[in-house]
Write a structure and sequence with these properties.
The structure holds 2 protein chains of 2 kinds. Chain A is α+β, with helices and mostly antiparallel strands. Chain A has 20 helices and 14 strands. In chain A, the strands form 3 sheets. Chain A has a 7-stranded antiparallel sheet with strand order 4-3-2-1-7-6-5, covered by helices on one side. In chain A, strands 10-11-14-12-13 form a 5-stranded mixed sheet, covered by helices on one side. A two-stranded antiparallel sheet of chain A has the order 8-9. In chain A, strand 3 and strand 4 form a beta hairpin. In chain B, the strands form 3 sheets. In chain B, strands 4-3-2-1-7-6-5 form a 7-stranded antiparallel sheet, covered by helices on one side. Chain B has a 5-stranded mixed sheet with strand order 10-11-14-12-13, sandwiched between helices. Chain B has a two-stranded antiparallel ribbon with strand order 8-9. The chains are: A alpha+beta, B alpha+beta.
């Protein structure tokens, strides 16, 4: 297919762009296969480059010959284009609609994007499972790397390499996979070096209504416990939901068959419930007519913060089991690709100082989201303005980022990255020039040959010039476990994401700059003082040698 | 002392509000000024001090097997739950506190016994720190249009006004007195703020006694005089800060509002700020939400909305914004009033002043603002904040709301204020503490009669002395947010106003951010200053050395000692390192009642001793903030990396999580 077929009118003059807090810009609108570009002929005005894949929905309306297109983006921004000429406007609108909903992944921008920067480190090789495992293998010999899923035959949504208990062989893993939803047998998610406790994750056991059992599954799960130790299975569904799952062949672990384990049910929502929550929240944030009371009411009615609280609470509970109770945990919901990953990754943020660094956080996303098979392609296909009620669209990853932001807000000095880093990840998960978030799992990414055909997000982010923007000036390495408060008073709306386009951030940006200045100046002085101290010490020693021969 | 039925009760249990596991056993003492709880735990002996004047309500609850619970709610939002083993003791404590918390004479208040060990001269200097005469001079007064009037000498015209007032030059004593007779409590229009840049002014008064048709020539002349004092504008705004309905109802009582037909060139405007009774009950509702035990997100947001608190804050801000815009953008003078002109008027005028004038956003300027718009103009501190036993219907969080407006603005303009959140919290505390004389009584006249300045100390001097604690590290005198008017969006967004966790949950340390950016930056700045000094000293020494070296002309290179890198260690403390209760009411995960996990998390104000000048430096002496060790770091320190589990109470949490 040629993009040209979809672009009936590639260029319109005298288009006016309206954005909140910016003066209107008049210029020429151009459509390319992947971008909507508006440039004014003045040199100093900013051009607008918008990826078609960032467009969530469009509205059009006409007043006489003047057409208006309102573009609603996946990053929640809303812009308006006034286009002279009804025909041009219609053409542009239909092109945008077609180009923003391309079916084939290989037509997406990452396959066409040619980076203008020099690649210092290829992000595709930055976080290899073998390297990640090395971090553990120095501390424990109870776990091993398994290549059982090399051809994605055992579990299509797992990566080729997973970490499993040392004494469970690949044959047993194959059997366990048959007993777990989507073949997602229990694998290691996190090893707590302090006390050797672990977080494992999996899909639900396929017990069904007749209480099917799997010897290998029981053996595997028990093999992860040290003698005399106990563990917790955290089911991210309510008991009710878990029970209902049995009718569809799913289910949960019977404690009788896993005697050293206790099951805890938490209730984290999934799918369209989260999507609807996001839609309501963004709607409330965009509505500026209501009074104070209705604002709080609508914030409440969206339930967004309720979801945040629930996810954070479960993650804290998991971390508490590990660090305080000295108990290992297994986490799963139904598939083990959504709420499960929210919990395992947030628990690591709480427990593991490394995951609060930039590289550590990237590794966490690579491990616990991309490799672990969170279906980004499906979940992030649409955002807050979508009309289609598809079950698989859901802001699971955004909720995770929001939870990280909540912890960051409570521990502003304990993270190496800042809020912008989280916002950047949100943007790229929904629309990007990089291939990192394409596909639903490693198997799909392999087939798409993303490593050969697209650029990794990490190749770009980890360049010093980019990293500077994402580094938290307040960061001081903190080796402790950090326990956030999950009380409603302590949780806030993430303004940086949800009010980003609805309020001017000028004063807040200035404050951030001032903060950076204060710290940079301090460091500068520190360096100067050190140099002088050294010089002085040199002179003094020389003096000393002179005066006392 | 005669009111203390029992000075000491042993084996009292102080219940942690969030975590019932965290109860502390100790001894309760009643003194003439404080309730003191001293924990038995030998290693800490933690003390909790509560000033009697901070006590808002005392509630005796039904006796249980463990003893008699006593709930003490404080005006600074602290909540204390005690369990006293003997019902009799509990009753005695209750009866004593009821009396102690409600003094009947000013002489019983703490400020008359509080002695910070300053000599007479220091005390007098303290009272001179804030000088309103100087403030009016700063505004550029007197000038061709405004003059200092002595019409209220000896409080002859209005007993709730100060004696020194600025009025338009053309307003003769006859006009002023005539106007005062047409205004509630004779609070005639007088100058609150003069905007040098364009001669516009903010004046304040009480409502006119207009009823349905009454007029007063002198009052009309008075408003005209105000208009003429501003040659740049041919009209003035009259802002009635009440809801229109309330103002209309007042007409039936012979009061009311200005009829535009009777006054030449006025533009009349209502801004609906509710009255003190609505505000009192709104705060009450919001505090009930804060008191909920492990509320859900919906409980909290719904309760917050239902309290209407933030809506009221917005109304006050709207009034201030309207006035500030009229003055700065339209160049029009504004007369502000409500009913008596001492509550909503004070709020609106001071918010407007804060928006208009950067001086009021400095530490000293903010004290001036409160001194001017609240203290001097007869805001009824005694009645509103219940310093002496009085009519509970007079109590209302009027200045609390103003203080919150300032915080809301600080959130919007982080670099525009010289002071920080702690400054606001401490002012709020002292409005209720009665430790200093500033906020005593209902008017300047009463304070003078009581000889407050001779018998008590000034809070302003105390705050000024400790100003290092109150600085906003992001404030810079030359910053772009600093000068001029603070420009809020013309349609203020509702989400601009947020729940002030740092104030209303200030004693629930577990609910606060565990690391403070402000404290961190303040420590950095302090270190920077030391570095600057050291740098200078080093340069000087180096220069000297080099001169000597030149004489010697001997060159030798030697390895220098490796320079130490100093980093900031924000060591996380026990709070950070202790989990809360995350299991909620999980059936399959029994064990814990809702608990916070941390012993200190309901941190009740601890005080070193009675003489400590500030009983509430919870933030300063705070061991919970996550960066507590910053202030004592030397520039070359930095090797004290926090070790895993350095939290002192780590073990206390072991096995709390799982009892089954």
């Amino acid at each position: 297919m040629e993009f040209a077929e979809l672009i009936k009118t590639p260029r319109v003059d005298n288009v006016v762009l309206h954005r909140p807090f910016y003066p209107a810009v008049e210029g020429t609108l151009c459509l390319t296969g992947h971008h909507l570009i508006l440039s004014s002929r003045q040199d100093n005005t900013e051009e607008l480059w918008l990826l078609h894949s960032n467009i969530d929905a469009i509205d059009k309306r006409f007043v006489g010959p003047l057409g208006t297109i309102i573009i609603k983006c996946k990053d929640f921004r809303i812009i308006q284009l006034d286009i002279p000429g009804m025909e041009e406007c219609l053409n542009i609108a239909s092109s945008i609609e077609a180009l923003s909903t391309l079916d084939s992944i290989t037509l997406m921008y990452p396959f066409f994007y040619r980076p203008m920067f020099e690649v210092i480190e290829d992000g595709w090789h930055s976080f290899l499972p073998e390297q990640e495992f090395e971090l553990y293998s120095s501390a424990t010999s109870e776990w091993r790397l398994s290549y059982v899923n090399k051809e994605f035959a055992v579990c299509p949504s797992y990566p080729p390499i997973v970490i499993v208990p040392k004494y469970i062989d690949d044959e047993a893993l194959r059997k366990v996979a048959m007993f777990r939803h989507g073949g997602r047998f229990p694998v290691l998610s996190y090893y707590h070096k302090k006390n050797g406790m672990v977080i494992m994750r999996s899909g639900q056991p396929l017990t069904g209504t007749n209480g099917r059992r799997c010897k290998e599954d029981e053996k595997l799960i028990n093999a992860t416990l040290r003698p005399g130790k106990r563990g917790y299975i955290i089911d991210t569904r309510s008991l009710n939901v878990a029970q209902q799952a049995r009718a569809k062949g799913g289910g949960f672990e019977q404690e009788a068959h896993y005697p050293q384990w206790r099951r805890i049910h938490k209730s984290i929502e999934r799918y369209h419930i989260l999507q609807e929550s996001l839609i309501k929240l963004v709607e409330a944030c965009n509505d500026q007519t209501h009074n104070m009371d209705r604002w709080l009411g609508r914030l409440e009615a969206s339930n967004w913060l309720t979801h945040i609280k629930e996810i954070l609470t479960t993650a804290c509970l998991a971390a508490q089991c590990i660090d305080r109770e000295g108990a290992s945990i297994l986490i799963h919901g139904t598939e083990g690709t959504d709420s499960t990953l929210q919990v395992t990754s947030l628990a690591q943020i709480i427990l593991e100082p490394r995951s609060r660094t930039i590289r550590g956080f990237e590794a966490l996303i690579e491990r616990e989201w991309l490799q672990a098979g969170h279906p980004f392609q499906q979940r992030c296909a649409q955002s807050a303005y979508c009309n289609s009620k598809q079950k698989w669209e859901s802001p699971v990853f955004l909720l995770f980022l929001d939870c990280v932001w909540q912890i960051l807000r409570q521990f502003p000095c304990s993270f190496e990255f800042n809020e912008n880093f989280l916002i950047m990840l949100f943007e790229h998960a929904y629309a990007s020039q990089f291939g990192t978030f394409l596909g639903n799992n490693e198997s799909e990414r392999c087939k798409l040959k993303l490593q050969q055909k697209t650029m990794s997000l990490w190749s770009w982010v980890n360049r010093p010039s980019e990293l500077r923007k994402f580094t938290n000036p307040l960061f001081e390495a903190n080796n402790l476990v950090i326990w956030p408060s999950v009380a409603p008073q302590s949780l806030q709306l993430w303004e940086g994401i949800f009010l980003r386009w609805n309020r001017s951030s000028k004063y807040l940006d200035e404050a951030y700059e001032e903060m950076v200045n204060i710290i940079e100046y301090n460091k500068e002085l520190q360096a100067k003082v050190n140099v002088l101290r050294r010089q002085l010490a040199e002179l003094e020693t020389e003096d000393g040698t002179q005066e006392s021969p | 002392m005669e009111h203390i039925r029992t000075p000491k009760v042993e084996n009292v249990c102080l219940v942690d509000r969030i975590s019932s596991k965290k109860a502390a056993l100790g001894t309760l003492y009643l003194t003439a000024t404080h309730v003191i709880f001293v924990e038995n735990a030998a290693d800490t002996r933690k003390e909790t001090w509560i000033l009697h004047s901070q006590i808002s309500t005392i509630e005796k609850q039904a006796t249980t097997a463990t003893g008699s619970p006593l709930l003490i709610r404080c005006k600074n939002f602290q909540l204390l739950q005690l369990i006293i083993p003997q019902e009799r003791d509990c009753h005695d404590v209750y009866i004593s506190l009821i009396r102690l918390a409600r003094p009947v004479k000013y002489e019983e208040l703490y400020c008359f016994s509080f002695n910070p060990k300053l000599d007479k001269e220091e005390r007098e200097q303290g009272w001179m720190l804030i000088d309103l005469g100087e403030e009016y001079k700063r505004m550029g007064l007197p000038n061709n249009y405004w003059q200092l009037s002595d019409v209220n000498r000896d409080y002859r015209v209005c007993d709730s006004y100060p004696t020194e007032l600025y009025v338009p030059k053309s307003a003769t004593a006859h006009i002023i007195v005539g106007s005062s007779k047409f205004r509630s409590r004779r609070r005639f229009p007088a100058l609150s703020y003069y905007y040098k840049d364009n001669h516009a002014s903010i004046c304040r008064s009480s409502q006119p006694l207009s009823g349905f048709s009454a007029r007063c020539l002198e009052d009309e002349q008075m408003l005209q005089a105000i208009r003429k004092a501003n040659p740049g504008s041919d009209f003035i705004y009259v802002v009635d800060t009440r809801p229109k309905l309330n103002a209309m109802a007042n007409r039936a009582a012979g009061k009311g509002y200005e009829n535009e037909d009777n006054y030449s060139n006025i533009k009349f405007q209502f801004i609906g700020i509710e009255n003190i009774h609505v505000m009192r009950s709104s705060l009450q509702k919001m505090l009930e939400v804060c008191e909920l035990k492990s509320p859900s997100m919906s409980d909290f947001l719904w309760g917050l909305e239902n309290s209407g608190w933030l809506r009221h804050i917005k109304a006050i801000m709207d009034a201030g914004i309207f006035i500030a815009k009229a003055v700065s953008e339209e160049g029009a003078s504004v007369l502000v009033h409500c009913s008596d002109g001492w509550d909503r008027t004070a709020q609106a005028c001071s918010v407007a002043g804060l928006l208009l004038d950067p001086h009021y956003r400095t530490l000293r300027g903010f004290m001036v603002l409160i001194e001017k718009d609240w203290i001097s103009f007869g805001h009824k501190f005694n009645h509103r904040y219940g310093n002496l036993d009085g009519d509970p219907k007079e109590i209302s969080p009027v200045i609390d709301q103003f203080i919150e407006c300032v915080w809301q603005l600080m959130e919007q303009f982080p670099c525009a204020f010289e002071f920080n959140e702690r400054f606001l919290i401490h002012i709020q505390h002292h409005i209720y503490s009665c430790q200093f004389g500033n906020f005593l009584c209902n008017s300047q006249k009463e304070r003078q009669e009581l000889k407050i300045q001779e018998r008590t100390y000034s809070l302003w001097a105390h705050l000024w002395k400790n100003r290092a604690d109150y600085m906003n590290p992001l404030f810079r005198a030359d910053h772009s947010q600093t000068p001029g008017t603070l420009c809020l969006p013309s349609t203020p967004f509702n989400f601009m106003y947020k729940f002030w966790n740092g104030m209303y949950n200030r004693f629930e340390k577990g609910l606060q951010p565990r690391q403070s950016v402000t404290d961190y930056l303040m420590a950095v700045k302090e270190e920077t200053q030391q570095l600057e000094e050291e740098l200078e000293a080093l340069e000087e020494r180096l220069e000297k050395m080099q001169k000597i070296q030149l004489n010697h002309t001997k060159v030798k290179s030697k390895q220098s000692e490796p320079s130490k890198h100093s980093g900031f260690s924000t060591s996380d403390n026990s709070t950070a390192n202790t989990p809360q209760d995350y299991s909620g009411n999980m059936k399959s995960f029994p064990s814990r009642s809702p608990s916070q996990g941390d012993e200190d998390s309901a941190l009740i104000l601890t005080q070193d001793n009675l003489k400590s000048s500030d009983p509430d430096l919870s933030a300063n002496s705070d061991q919970e903030s996550g960066v507590e060790d910053l202030s004592c770091r030397s520039p070359s320190g930095g090797e004290c990396a926090p070790s895993e589990d350095s939290g002192k109470d780590r073990d206390s949490d072991e096995a709390v999580f799982l009892t089954a």
